[in-house]
Amino acid sequence: MSTDLRTEIIKAEGVTKRFGGLVAVDRVDYSLREYEVAGIIGSNGAGKTTFFNLLTGYYVPDAGSILYKGNDVTRMTPQERVAIGMMRSFQLTSTFDNLSVVDNLVLSFFRAHRRSTLMHLVFNTCKRFRQEEKILTILETFDLQDVRDREVKHLSLGEKRRLEIAMAVLAEPEVLLLDEPLAGLAESEIKGILDVLRRHVGKQSILIVEHKISHVEDFLQRLTVMHEGRIIADGGYEETLRHPEVRRSYWQIDIEAEAGGSAGS
Length: 265
Ligand SMILES: Nc1ncnc2c1ncn2[C@@H]1O[C@H](COP(=O)(O)OP(=O)(O)OP(=O)(O)O)[C@@H](O)[C@H]1O
Ligand SMILES: [Mg+2]
Description:
By secondary structure, this protein is of the alpha/beta class. The chain folds into two domains: 1-86 and 175-265, P-loop containing nucleotide triphosphate hydrolases (Rossmann fold, 3-Layer(aba) Sandwich); 93-172, no CATH class. The protein is 38% helix and 23% strand. The protein has eleven helices and ten strands. The protein has helices spanning 48-56, 78-83, 101-113, 118-129, 133-141, 157-170, 187-200, 213-216, 237-242, 244-249, 255-263; strands at 8-19, 22-33, 37-41, 63-68, 71-72, 87-89, 175-179, 205-209, 222-227, 230-235. The strands form two sheets. The protein has a six-stranded mixed beta sheet, sandwiched between helices. Helix 3 packs across helix 4 (118-129) and helix 3 packs parallel to helix 6. The chain is globular, with a radius of gyration of 20 Å. The mean pLDDT is 88. It binds adenosine-5'-triphosphate and magnesium ion. Magnesium ion is lined by residues 48-49.
């Protein structure tokens, strides 16, 4: 495998998380580099979401550590990790359903960049900053111009998902975490999300968990497979999918029978 010289943004070392007797994440070593677009797949219950929750700080690992640019952040809260610009998960972005799309974006922008109280923002700054360049750009990138003045409660699921991701992106985190961004969306809406994600490749590191793996195939630079809490393969997309352990555990292909069959007589 070639050596990737890009800076390591996040490094998980021997990270373990147990729920009672169940080891949901089992001594996982993982690193994500600058501008890398990486995917994680794995069957239901493999530990993907738990691993995300360890990265975002929702869980503290029972063992192991998480480093951000070499600094130990294992015990930092999610808010502290967001505040240092480490990462943002689109599931963490709560929208205000009675406010318009553009005002949600303005709030997200200011919560990330300035320390004003929310109420102060709602009443005083939204109006002034609706034309802020960053907001206009993000409306365009995420194809939200047509619904910019619509209240969030009137958006389609696809539009709302685009807004959630846009709000996470506005915080300009080093890493954008997407746990099943396509879940629950119709094919027509999926295309819209993929278009905006594709436009975002190269602007920050993106880590994406997705069951609909073929949808993200063209822009993933790396693929990791989890199974029963462990990483069983990690590397380029094709190479990972062909890995014997992935074929056995993830695709449930009976390799011995196959080998026996091809060996023939
Ligand atoms: N809060 C919790 N309390 C107890 N057990 C949990 C908790 N969260 C997850 N688990 C268990 O940990 C294991 C890993 O779950 P996790 O949600 O991380 O899997 P996943 O890979 O995200 O699965 P899916 O593809 O279904 O989203 C599962 O066996 C799950 O039942
Ligand atoms: Mg999950």
